[in-house]
Every structure is written in C-alpha cells, then in structure tokens.
C-alpha cells in the first residue's frame, strides 16, 4: 500500500467514525427521523474536510470531487441508524467514535495540508481545524455548546497529534508511522483527560455581570 | 429570453422568496427590529448562493460581483417588514416562501454548477446545498434546530429537483424546461410531504443515555 | 510608518480587542475553562478576517500565512483570562472591546479588500462582513442570538465606517486618515446608539402564529 493509499484509508475510517458519532448524536439529542440522522451524520463526517479544503483553496473540496467520502459518510449514518442497539454495547459510543474521528482527522488533515503545499505551521493548524470542524458544526446544528469550548481536552490533543504527524516526517520518520503515532497520542491525551478528569483552570468571577 | 436570462430570473425570484421567508421568520421568532429583519432576510436569501460559489471556487461570490442579488434580497426583506399583514393572508406564508425558494435554488444552483464546470454528481449536490444553505444559516442564527435535521422532507425534495435539472438536459430536454420540471417536482414533494404528514422512520431508543 | 504598516497595526489592535471581547464573553456566558476561553477568543478575533479572505479568494487566509494574527489573538485571550479583574474596571468591557474591534475591522477589512482588487461596493460589504463576522461566530458558539440580528446598530455603523474608509481615499484623502475617520464614525454611531437607546422600528404582529 502506498503512503497516499494508507492516508486515504485512515481518512475514510475517520469519516466512518464521525458519521457514526453524528448519527448517534442526532438520535440521542433530538430524536430526529432517518433523514435528519443521515444529514447530521454526513455534516459531522465531511464538514471538517470541507473547511480544510476551502481554507487551502483546493476547490471544489475533495468531498465533491470523488464519490467515496459521501458514500462512506452515508453508510456510517445508516449503520448507526439501524445498528444503534449493537453500537450501544460499546462503552460510551459517542465519545469513542468522536475520539477515533478526531485523532484520524488531526493527522490526515495535517498531512494532506502538507501535500497541498502548506508549510509546517499551517499544516498543524489545518489538521487541528479538520479534526474539530465536523464536531463543531454538529454541535451548532443540534444547539449544544461545542466541545472545543467546553471540553477542555478537545482541540489540544488534536493539535498535539497534528504536530507529530507533521514534524516526525521532517525528522525522517515515514509518513504512515508518524500519522499512526500522532493519532495514538491524540486519542490517548483525550481519553486520559476524560478518564482522569484532567481540568484546565477556570477564572473565578465574583460578579460576571460587570463584564457586559 | 436566453437560457441564461431565464435561469437568472428564476434565481432572483428564489432570492426574493427566501428574503420574505427570512424576514418573516425574524419577526415571528424573535421580534427583531427593522435592521435585524433585513439582516436575517439577506442572510437567508444569499447564504446558499455564497456557499455554492465558495465550494465551486468562483470567488468573489456572485452576490459580491453584481448588485442585483443584494438589492433583491433587501427589497424582499423590506416588503416583508412593511407588508406582513398582507403576506399573512397567504396560508402559512413562511412555509410557502421557503418552498418556493428551496425549489428555485435547487434547480438554479445545480444548473449554475454545471455552467461553472462541475460534473453531474457535483452539480446535484451543490444544487441541494444551495437550496438548504440559506435556511440552515437562518435557523442557526435564530437558534432553531434547522429544517434539514427535523423536517424529514427538506433536503430530499431539493436533491430530487436538482437531479431533474441536471439529468434532463443530458437527455436532450432544454435547460429551461428541465429547471421548471425540477422545481415543480421539488415543491410538490415537499408540499405533499407536509400536507399528508409523510414521515421517515425514527429510531426507537430504549435508553438514549447509553449512547454518550 | 508606511500605509500598509499602519493598516496592519490597526488590524492587530482590532484582533487584540476582539480576543479580549471573545474571551470575556466565554467567561461571562458559560464559565468556560482556560482552553474554552482561548478558543472563543481566537474564533472571535480571527473569524471575520478568515471569512473575508475566503470570499476574496485569498487562500490560504492571512491568519494561516503569517504567525502574528494567531499570536495576537492568543495573547489577548490570555490577558483576558488572567486580567479579568483589571478589565472589569473598564465600564462595560465587553461592549467597549467589541466596539473597538468592530470599528477597526470595518475600516481595515474594507481597505484590505480594495488592495486585493475588490471594487468599492464589494469592499464596503466585505469590510462590514469582516467587522460583524467574528462576533457572529462567537454568539452562535455560545448560543446567543447574534448582535447583527438584535442589536439594531451593529451592522449599520460597520457599513458606515467601511464607506468612509473606501470612499474618502477616492476623493484624495490619505488611506490612514480615511481609516481613522471611518473607525471613529463607526464607534461613535454604535456608542451613541447604545447610550441614547436609538431604536429601529419594530413590526407589530397581532398574531405571529399566522406566519408559519
């Protein structure tokens, strides 16, 4: 398998995981019907990649150029719709699929940005944006405060994963291995943060109404 | 009238209908003042077209290149603001204008994408996106769960209309007739679905909290 | 200092003000932790400029091409997080910083659009969009109805400032002076409107449910 092929495979697994995540969120939060579940699954799965391609100026975005992104996203949403009982056996399935999608999109988004000519700093930022973009659109559409604002460890692990995926190849590590290591780091930091309840500091406001 | 002229006419009627829709929604949902009503009318009317042009890489978007899109949108919003008593005589005016805009944007968005060099599959998707884009922005801004998620028959009729508008010309039908037929199909499916209460299946979750 | 240098300085002051504004909003509205405060500060500070660059087709956007936008935004958010007690001594700090950012982004956004080849009408619209874009994203993310819809005098002063920044140079005024005058006008109209309670007319609906 070529490096490009491996990157595409990781990306499609990420699309599938985000489609499951978005579709389960649609069923969980607002009891949407089949079309709503598929729509939210697709937005969650392809939203981050579209934002990345728009910012890179790679237009039309890959989702519109080739058929398999949308097919994978639709497939994932339908699997979630009909298989939610099975998926509910996974412990905290929405968290798990969201973490898988986040980790894979952070590293693939960053490496695709490098392939498109972005420099290292841009590629890390675009990897992070690709990772958090779909979930942020998902949360805005179902009217939740998005994870990038509340989650503490959501954007940070994505950026860490993107750093590894971009910097390791500059040091001679193969792209595939760097993507794998970055993805594992992102997933580990996010999961560790959630399990151990790592918390970032909060500001203690005595009279928040003074700030208006 | 040339084919381009007819397409532009349909598009501007769609812009006007969406401006009425957005402005009435602003008065209905949140009792906004004149500037808020005009702002939501414009966003609803030109939002879908801007998204389409960004994804096609046709920058700056047509809304910024020529004056008549914004003029039509502003005009529609002002008509709604001062004429809402008259518009309220239409049965369910927000639904009606939203359906007119949806149908016209689905077919014009798809044919404009073809003219800009998109292939058939891309054009159908971009037609659907153009149609649902403005209403989705509208709902996000007034904090409603958007129609693409709850409405059942919202994105589907738009995609059906776009299919007709793109495929019929490939079979030798004139572009104008194809746009007309696609628009009628979209409006009929959406209206039929609403009147007859066609519902897509829902997932029955026994314990939704298991999905987190 | 060159005209470009002065424009960049104004823009970075605007980025800093919007970062304070977004970060304070994050602490005020939803008691977010450090990462959430920084994320909302950055989105508010760079969101408008990214929207402008996407619509101009200047891709990747300046925020991704050079380091100092993100650095200024992050710095502003951290200052707000650790210095909120000090900032609370400013009367109505969120309003003040939002007005500074709005005024500076309206004039710099409009002049940058001119530099990128936009004509006068486009530049005014893009200046207005740059000014209201970040705050609108901020409000959507924390689930407030955005100021462009409710505020009455929010988009209007931004457009007025952009008109001055674009038209005065055509009449021979230097760009720097035009930007200064446009910014002062925008800030004066917005502040005057808020202090004096200028209100735009509202539609009086007898039976809003007729509009559905």
TrEMBL record, chains A, B, C:
Localization of this protein: Cell membrane
Query: Sorted alphabetically, which keywords does the UniProt record give?
Result: Cell membrane, Membrane, Transmembrane, Transmembrane helix
Task: Provide the topology term for how it sits in the membrane.
Answer: Multi-pass membrane protein
Q: Which parts of the sequence belong to the Glycine transporter domain?
A: 9-84, 96-167
Alphabetical list of InterPro entries matching this protein = Gly_transporter
Q: Where are the transmembrane segments?
A: 6-27, 34-51, 66-83, 95-114, 120-141, 153-171, 177-195
Region forming the signal peptide? none
User: Which Pfam families does this UniProt record tie to the protein?
Assistant: Gly_transporter
Give the family per the record: Belongs to the UPF0126 family.
Entry protein name: Trimeric intracellular cation channel family protein
């Amino acid at each position: 398998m070529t490096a490009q092929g491996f990157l595409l495979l990781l990306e499609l697994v990420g699309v599938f995981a985000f489609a499951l995540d978005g579709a389960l969120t649609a069923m969980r939060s607002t009891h949407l019907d089949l079309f709503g579940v598929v729509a939210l699954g697709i937005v969650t799965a392809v939203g981050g990649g579209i934002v990345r391609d728009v910012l890179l100026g790679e237009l039309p975005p890959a989702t519109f150029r080739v058929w398999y992104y949308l097919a994978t996203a639709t497939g994932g949403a339908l699997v979630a719709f009909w298989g939610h009982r099975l998926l509910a056996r996974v412990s905290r399935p929405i968290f798990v699929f969201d973490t898988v999608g986040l980790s894979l999109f952070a590293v693939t988004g960053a490496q695709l940005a490098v392939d498109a000519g972005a420099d290292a700093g841009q590629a890390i930022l675009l990897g992070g944006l690709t990772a958090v973009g779909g979930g942020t659109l998902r949360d805005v559409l179902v009217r939740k405060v998005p994870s990038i604002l509340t989650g503490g460890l959501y954007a940070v692990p994505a950026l860490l994963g993107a750093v590894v995926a971009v910097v390791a190849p500059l040091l001679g590590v193969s792209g595939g291995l760097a993507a794998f290591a970055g993805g594992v780091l992102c997933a580990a930091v996010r999961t560790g943060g959630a399990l151990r309840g790592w918390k970032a500091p909060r500001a203690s406001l005595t009279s928040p109404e003074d700030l208006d």
